[in-house]
Queue: 4 jobs
Job 1
Amino acid sequence: MIIAIDGPAASGKGTIARRLAAHFGLPHLDTGLLYRAVGAKALADHVNFEDEAALAALAALAGALNLAALDPEALKSGAVGEAASRVAALPQVRAKLLTVQQDFARQPGGAVLDGRDIGTVIAPEAEVKIFVTASPQARAARRHAELAARGEGVTPEEVLADILKRDERDSGRASAPLIRAGDAEILDTTTLNIDESWQAALALVARRRAS
Ligand code: C5P
C-alpha cells in the first residue's frame, strides 16, 4: 500500500505520515528533507539563482543525495526551509529527485511519503491520498512554537509572513505545484490537536481501503 500525504508547511502532515507508517509497519520518507538538503547546500554556497552553472551543480548534488545520510535535525531551521522552497521551484532539481522518491514509493509492500506532489506526481497510483491542510494562522502558531523550542528568535508575525510566502511559492510554481490531487481526501487540522489529527487520518485510510 502506498500512502501519499501532501499539504502546506506545518499542516501536521509529517506527524500524521510518521504515525501512519509506524501503525502499518511501512517505511516513511519525508520528501521535504530532500529539498531541504539541496536548499542547505545552496545556502552554504551562497548560490546565485541567476547562475546556470551553479544551478546545474545543485541539480547534480540533488541527483547524488543519499537518503540514509539525511539528518532531519540539521535541516529543520527556518532559513533552510526558505532555501528549500526556492530550490524546489527549479525543474532541474525536481527532475533529479524524482527517481529516488518513486523508487522509495514503489518498494515491495509499499510506503508512506509526505510532501507537496506525492499524490499528483511521485505516486499518482497511491491507494490512499490525504491532503492535510490548516489555516495559515494555525500553521504559523505551530511553526513558531517549534522554532522557539529550537532557540530560533523569530516573532509570530515573521513566521506567518514566511508561511504565506512559502505557500505562494509552492502553489504558484510551474513545476509540480502544491495542489490537491483530485482523488485525495482533505483533512483540515486547524482545530485538531496531534492525536485528533492522527485519529482522523486513520479513519480516512480505513474508509479508503474499504471502498
Ligand atoms: O515539508 P518541508 O517544509 O520540509 O519542505 C520544504 C520545502 O520543500 C517546501 O516548502 C517545498 O517548497 C519543498 N517540497 C516540495 N516538494 C515536496 C516536498 C517539499 O516542493 N515533495
Job 2
Amino acid sequence: MIKRIPSLVFIFFLVVVANAQETNKMIVDATSSTAVINKNIYGHFAEHLGRCIYDGIWVGKDSKIPNINGYRTDIINALKEMKIPVLRWPGGCFADTYHWKDGIGPINERAKMMNYHWGGVVENNTFGTHEFLNLCEMLGCEPYISANVGSGSVVEMTQWIEYMNSDKDVPMANLRRQNGREKPWNVKFLGVGNESWGCGGNMTPDYYVNLLRNYSEMAGIYGQWKLQQIGCGANGADYNWTEVVMKQRPGAMSGLSLHYYTIAGPDWGNKTAATGFEKKFYFSGLEKALKINELIEKHSAIMDKYDPKKQIGLMVDEWGIWTDVEPGTEPGFLFQQNSIRDALIASLTLNSFNNHADRVKMANIAQTINVLQSVILTEGSKMVLTPTYYVFKMYAVHQDAKLLPSQLIGESYEMDGKKIPALSSSVSEDKNGNVHLTISNLNPDKDISLSVELVGKSFGKVNSASVLTAPDYNSYNSFEKPATVKPTDFRNYKITGPSTLNLTIPSKSVLVLEIM
Ligand code: AHR
C-alpha cells in the first residue's frame, strides 16, 4: 500500500502519537528525497604524523610484514572492504611545512626534513607523491591533496598541480615521466591551506581570503579549471571565518572546510583517556560530538546567504574524538585506542552528515591508522579493526544513495541532570530501491523499542540487519582481544504492518537494516 502524507501532517501525527503512547517513533518519508548522500562523506585523512604513514600504510618492499610494493597488504584489504572513497594527504599541520619536491625521485636520494609538529622526528620522504597517488589507485579512492599555503608558494603549488595532472610536454609532467609515471593521476580535490587560522599560518580571515583568491586563480589556470578547490574553513564555531571567506571567496572555490574535534574531558589540557574512562566521560563524549548538528546548521545558514543554490560543499575534512595518548607512547604521535563510545560518536556524526547531505559534500575522519579516531591500529605485523572501522563498513550502504527525510521522536538519555537524545538515525534509498536505516542507541544501560513507519513505500522484507554493540560502555578491541566489539546479525525486529516495523535496539549499539 502506498500512502502519501504531506510532511507537516505526518510530523504532527508523529508528535501526537509519540506523546500519547510514550513510544519512540520514526517516520521516514519515501516520497521525497532532498539530496544524494555524497560518498565522500565517508572519507579519511592520512597525515605524516606518528605511525599513520610509516608502520600504518607503508612498511617498504623489504619488510617481513606482507606487503604489495611496500604497502601493507592487510591495510589495503581492510580499507578496500570498508569502501574508502577519498583520502586526504599529506596533512594537517604537516602539509603547511611540506615541500613536495623533497618526496619524488629515487627513494634513497630524497631530501630529509624535520617534522616540526609531530614528535620532532626526521621525515625521510620515502612516502611521497607517487606513493600516495599510487595508493589511491590501488584502493580505488579519490586523492585529496592539501597544498602548502603556510610556508609554500604559488609556484610550488602550481608546479605540483602540473606534475600530478598534466599530460602535455611541459617541465613538471616531463619530470614525472622521468620518475617513472607516464600518465597523469588527474587529482580532483585540492585543499588550499590547512587550518590557516592556526598551524597553517595564524592568519586572520581577511588576510587568508586574499591569499585564497591568489592561490585559487593560479590553481585554476594550471589545473585547467578541473580541480575542485577547497578553501580553508572555520575552527569549530568560528562563524566569522565562514562569513568573511564566503563573502569574498574566489569563483573557483567549490568547497569550504570545517574542523571539529570532540574532547570528552573538560578542556584540551584534560582530554581524558581513550579506555578505562568513567561513565561521565562516555556521556560527555557523546554530548560534545552531537554539537556537530549545530555547527553544520549555523555554518550552512551563513553559506546559504552567499550560495543559496548550495553549489559549495561544506567539507568537514577533520573530525573525530581526540583523547590522551596511550600510556607510554610518544605524546607527539597522538596514538589512541578506540572504544564503543567512539563508534557511537562516528555513527551519530555520520547520521548528521547524511541528514545534511544538501550541504555536506565531503568529510574526512582523523586519522586513518594509528592516530586519533582511527579505523585501524597496527603493532608490528598485527592489525586491529577498531569499533569505528565497523561503523564505516556498516554505513557504506549510504554512499551515493538518495537521502530519505526522516523524523525521530524519542526518549532522552539523562545523566547528572543533563540530557541528550537517546537515538540517532538516518535513512537512504539506493539505486536498486533498497532502503537502509542506520540507528544508534546512545543509552549504555537500556534497550530501546522503536516503531518505524515508512510513508510512500511498503516493507517487503528485511534483507539483512546487523548490530555493533559491546559488553561495556568503554569496551574496545585490543591486539590480544581483537574481536570484543564486532558486528553480529540482528534479529530483534518485526514487520507489523505493510509499512510498519518494530525494533528493539540494544543499549550502546549501532544498527543497520536493509529493507526492500
Ligand atoms: O589531526 C591532527 C591535527 O589536528 C592536524 O594536523 C591539524 O590540522 C589539526 O589541528
Job 3
Amino acid sequence: MAGVILKIMTNIALIGCTGSIGRQAADVVRRYPDRFRFTALACGKRAGELIALCREFRPLLAYCEAPFDPPAGVKAVKDKTELFAGCDVALIAAGGFTGLAYTLAAIEAGKKIALANKESLVCGGELVMRAAKEKGVEIVPVDSEHSAIFQCLSYRCDAAFEKLVLTASGGPFLHKSKEELAHVTVRDALHHPTWKMGPKITVDSATLLNKGFEVIEAKWLYGAPLEKIGTVVHPESIVHSLVYFSDGAALAQLGYPDMRVPIQLALTYPERLPCAPMLDLTQIGTLSFLPFPEDKFPCFTLAIDAARAGGTMPAVLNAAGEIAVQAFLAGCITFSAIADTIQDALGAFARENAESYDQLAETDARARAHAKAFIYGSSAS
Ligand code: MG
C-alpha cells in the first residue's frame, strides 16, 4: 500500500471510568492529549468522580447509573447504547456482568473493542465473538496476560500456536496449606503481592478464580481448546504470559507489572509509545516458576468445569462468584465458603445453550438469588 496513514487522534469511549483500569486509562490519555481524546465517559455510582473527570477531559457524552449533573458542554445520555457515537475505540473497563451489555452495544455500533471487562467473555463469550464476527469488529485484549499473548502472536488473534501459557502470581496465599486457607481474613486476601487492583478481582486472584476466568477468556479470544491453555505460577509477575509454537520455540512478553502498558497498547498497536520504565533484568535477578497449585484452590477447577460444560454455566459460575466474594468482603462467609457457594450453584443449574443476552441476564439473576439463599438462608433473594 502506498503512503503511510498517520493516526492523529484516537477517540475513546471509556466505560467504567472510576474503576482501577478506568483511572489508569485516564493517566494514559492525560500523558498524550494530542493522541487520545475521551468522547464518552461512563461509570456506575461514583457521580462525583465522573463529574470531575468530565471537567478535566470534556467528553461529548457521559453516563452514570446514579443521578448526576454533567458540566456545561457534556451531554448526559439516558441510554448506554448512545455512548459509542463518535468514538473509534470502546474501552470496556466496567466490572461485573454489566460489562457484557456495554460490549454488545459497542459491537452493535460497529466500534473496535479494547476489552478489560472479564465477564463479557466469561459469561457471554459465544455471543460476543459471534456478534463481533458478524459486524467485522475487532476485539483487543487489555488484561495483561491476554495482551502478552496478543503481542507474542504479532497482534493476530487467529495466528497458529501450539499452546498458550498464562502466568499467575499465585496471589497472597500461594504458600498456605489447605488448613491455613480456612482461616485467612479479608485483609489477608486484599493484600496482593504484585498487582494493585479493585477488591473483587483481588479476592478472585487469591482464590485463583481469576485465573480460571482468564483461561475462559483465552479460549474465546484465541479460539483455543481448553487442552491448549496452560497455567504456571510466576510470583514476580514479570513474564506476563507465553506462547509455544510447533517447533518448540516459545515467546514471552516481559515487563514490570503496570496495567497502563496493555491499556495504552490496545489503543495504539502496532505502534508503541513511551509508557513504563524499562525492565532491568539484573535488578530483578531471578525469575521463578512453579507448578500451578490447582488442588489447593478449588475455584480454579470449578471455573474449568464450567468452561468445559459451556453454554450458560460460566454465567452461573460468575454470578455465584460475585455474590460469594461480596459476602466474604462483608465478613459473612469464610474464604473457603467462596468455592462452596460456586460449587453449589453449578450443581443446581442445568446447562442451556447460550442464545441471547436476555437469557444470560436471566440466568445471572437466578444464579445470584440461588447463591444468596445458599449463603444467607432461603429467606434471602
Ligand atoms: Mg490478569
Job 4
Amino acid sequence: MRIENDIKLGFKDVMIRPKRSTLSSRAEVTLARKFKFLHGGDAWQGIPIMAANMDTVGTMEMAAALAEHQLFTALHKHYTPAQWKTFMETGGTAITEQIAVSTGTNDADAKKLAVILAENSTLRFVCIDVANGYAEKFVDFVKSTREKHPGKVIIAGNVVTGEMVEELLLAGADMVKVGIGPGSVCTTRVKTGVGYPQLSAIIECADAAHGLGGQIISDGGCKVPGDVAKAFGGGADFVMLGGMLAGHEESGGQLVEKEDGSKYKQFYGMSSETAMEKYANGVAEYRASEGKTIEIPFRGSVSDTVLDILGGLRSTCTYVGAQSLKELTKRTTFIRVQEQHNEWFGE
Ligand code: 5GP
C-alpha cells in the first residue's frame, strides 16, 4: 500500500482568478478552435464541446441540434448500421465533422464498426469507449482499430493518469477521454472506491497528451457552465457533457408526465440497471450496476442550454482577458477555495 500526499482537486475546490483585460465585450471572444490530430487526417475546426455517447444524450436529434452551434456529438453505440445509413442520407453527411461513431471493444463491436464505416465513408471520428481504459485488451483494441482504419480520428477512454494517456496515444488514439467516476449518474466511486478528482486528472492528462501532440477530452462532472470553463482552464481540449445536455427535447430517455402536468425526462448511466436491462438482458451476476436512473425536469430545446453554456464561457474569457478559448488555459490562475456560489435562494 502507498499513499500519495499531493492534494488533488475537483471543480468545486477552485475558482478562476479575474485578470486585467483589454477586452470590452463578450462578443469579441472566439470559442471555435482548430486542432491537428496526432494520427488521423485533416485539421478540425469547431467549438470543442461534445455530447456524451450515452443513449439519453448522444442521439441523432442531439447531433443535428448541436451541429447548428458548431458543437460535437459522440453518438451512442447502440445505433444499428441501418439507422446510421438513414441518418447519414438525411442530413448526417452534412455534419460529419461534428459527429463520432461510438464502439465497445468486443469482436461484434469491431465488426459493426467496420460495417458502419464502410457504408458511410464520410464518417471521420470514432469513439472507443469503455468504463475502465486500463485493461490491456483495450489498448490492443485501439491498436487494431488504428491499423484497420488508418485515416480516422480515434477517441479512446476513459483513463485519469498521464502514463495511460501516453500509452493510448502511442497505441493509435488521437484524443484520450479523461474521467473515472465524476459523472452525474455514475456510482463507480460509491461501488468501487476508485476515482480521481476531475480537475487534477485534466491538468495531469493534458500535460501528458500535449507533450506527444495529442488531445484530451474532459468527460464528466460538469454541473454548471462555470465547470466547463474550469475544465478548459485546466487544459482540456474538448469537454464532454452528459447531465448538462440531458432532459431536453433532443435527448433520449422516456418523457414522463406527472398527474399535476409537470414533465420529466428519464436519464440514466450507461452501466445502470436500466441500460443493462435495455441492452444486455439485465445485470450479469458477476458485476454490480455502476450507474443511477433519475428523472430530470423537462427543459425544452437544447439550443437555449447551449447558448447559456457558450455565454458563460465567453464571459469567463473576458474576465481573464482571453480573446479566444485557446488562450483560456494560458490565462487561467486557479485559486483554491472553500466556498463556491451563494446557495441562500437555491442554486
Ligand atoms: P456528466 O456530464 O453527466 O457528469 O458525465 C457524463 C459521463 O459519465 C459520460 O460521458 C460517461 O463517461 C460517464 N457515465 C455515463 N454513464 C455511466 C455509468 O453508468 N457509470 C459510470 N461509472 N459512468 C457513467
